[in-house]
Amino acid sequence: MASIVANLPPPLLVNGRRPLLRTLRKFTVSAIGERELRVAVVAKATGESSESSTSLSVVQSVQDVWDKSEDRFALIGLGFAAIVALWASANLITAIDKLPLIPSALEFIGILFSSWFIYRYLLFRPDREELFETINKSVSDILGQ
């Protein structure tokens, strides 16, 4: 059983009205203390969450690969190489970050690239559709569909 408790700020006002309180009647709502400055919302869920089912499917797929593998020594070596590569890349990024002017230059390049990406793919509807088509094509190529 999972529980979520949230303290919300004062009710949202849209044109002087309070639409948030009207929509919260479906949920368990109680005022904190005697003040009306904050509203507490408690949501409780029972049953299987989608997050745990996906983690179980990932674990199951890893177990299937391990069981089907004939060369387990190579899988262990591949896992060790992945851990070493992750450690080395983290240390490389830390070393680059300590150099003077390099972090600022890389940050500026990142801002320029992000601005170009937003202008090229996200600003206009036809460009967004082109981006979605490219992403869907890449995903289908990777999954072999």
From TrEMBL:
<keyword id="KW-0472">Membrane</keyword>
<feature type="transmembrane region" description="Helical">
    <location>
        <begin position="99"/>
        <end position="119"/>
    </location>
</feature>
<dbReference type="InterPro" id="IPR025564">
    <property type="entry name" value="CAAD_dom"/>
</dbReference>
<feature type="domain" description="Cyanobacterial aminoacyl-tRNA synthetase CAAD">
    <location>
        <begin position="61"/>
        <end position="144"/>
    </location>
</feature>
<protein>
    <recommendedName>
        <fullName>Cyanobacterial aminoacyl-tRNA synthetase CAAD domain-containing protein</fullName>
    </recommendedName>
</protein>
<feature type="transmembrane region" description="Helical">
    <location>
        <begin position="73"/>
        <end position="93"/>
    </location>
</feature>
<dbReference type="GO" id="GO:0009535">
    <property type="term" value="C:chloroplast thylakoid membrane"/>
</dbReference>
<keyword id="KW-1133">Transmembrane helix</keyword>
<dbReference type="InterPro" id="IPR033344">
    <property type="entry name" value="CURT1"/>
</dbReference>
<keyword id="KW-0812">Transmembrane</keyword>
<dbReference type="Pfam" id="PF14159">
    <property type="entry name" value="CAAD"/>
</dbReference>
